[in-house]
Amino acid sequence: MKYRKLGKTGLEVSVVGVGTWQFGGEWGKNFTQKEVDDILFTSKEVGINLIDTAECYGDHLSESLIGKFLEQDTREDWIVATKFGHHFHHNFERTNHWSATEVIQQLDASLKSLRTEYIDLYQFHSGSDEMFNNDDLWTALDKQVEAGKISHLGISIGSNQNIYQTDLASKVNAGAIQVVYNRLEREPEDEVFPSCERQDLGVLARVPLASGYLSGKYKPGATFGTQDVRHRHDQQEVAKKLRLVEEIQRNEVPEGVNMAQWALAWCLKHPAVTTVIPGCKNSEQVRLNASAAELDIVSDTHPQAVNNG
Question: Which 3 state secondary structure label does DSSP give 166?
Answer without folding.
Answer: helix
